[in-house]
């Protein structure tokens, strides 16, 4: 069985994933719902401590299916603020509040993360005041257990033996505009004892990403099928002028990675294993996963996996 075929058989681990492992909790890409995959979220094990990377819709339930209690997560890292990557943040706050979370939760993300969390925490005022209707009982408020730390290009976070490093990528704007004022999308590197992981997040081709990802053991990369996506754009907008269609195509090509781009990136950074994720509906289905893996493998000689929810690597 090929590596891509093996990764179709999603498994629900019976116990917490092993130290330094990586689990794809949600391999779908939004904003459209993918019937085969949850929205973007991933799990990194920092020894015995679970760390959540992105928090797309359904992330809390996917943690449970992976054998991890959401209250055991002490750190969440956000790559950027598109809704498919942050849709479960409010659920995360509320569920931790209602289950009397006893420990702090730190949420890291690009500039703007604090504003988002400030408003979500304020939205907890009403359910926190209602409580369970038990006289004299008070639930902890998220403002008492949540801490937010914003990151920019070059940020370095040390969490025990794990070091997390960030770089700005080209999901929001072209490379020559990076580091200028404006919205920030991040790629993240996790260096653990004996293993390194790199998350492209959503990005187009980017030199900063290549630089930070050098020599990584596991490269977790977004992947877009541009031809399929543009076919759907054309079908949904039959009267759109060709010039407008081409403008959309150019934008998507600069802000996302094709299978060939993924293979080239993995080859240039010397990755040991690449896992493709972030699939729009219809992309990388069980019937087509092997063909996408082959397109990546045509540019990269290492191990290739087409990610599926609840797979561990």
Structural description of this entry:
The protein has 313 residues and is α/β, with parallel strands linked by helices. The chain has a single domain (3-312), classed as Metallo-beta-lactamase, Chain A (4-Layer Sandwich), CATH 3.60.15. The chain contains twelve helices and 14 strands. It has helices spanning 3-6, 59-65, 83-86, 89-98, 113-122, 125-130, 142-145, 207-212, 226-236, 242-255, 259-269, 289-297; strands at 22-26, 41-46, 49-53, 75-77, 105-109, 146-150, 156-159, 162-168, 186-192, 195-199, 218-222, 273-277, 303-306, 311-312. The strands form two sheets. The protein has a seven-stranded mixed sheet. Helix 9 packs antiparallel against helix 10 and helix 11 (259-269) crosses helix 12. It is globular, with a radius of gyration of 19 Å. The model is unreliable at 1-13 (pLDDT under 50).
How would you sum up this structure in a few lines?
The chain is of the alpha/beta class and 313 residues long.
* Structural class by helix and strand composition: alpha/beta
Overall pLDDT? 92
SS field, number of helical segments: 12
Distance between the termini: 17 Å
* Lateral arrangement of strands in the main beta sheet: 6-5-4-3-2-1-14
The tally of structural domains comes to: 1
| Architecture (CATH level 2) name | 4-Layer Sandwich
Regions with pLDDT < 50 over 5+ consecutive residues? Answer: 1-13
CATH top level class name: Alpha Beta
This entry's quaternary arrangement is single chain
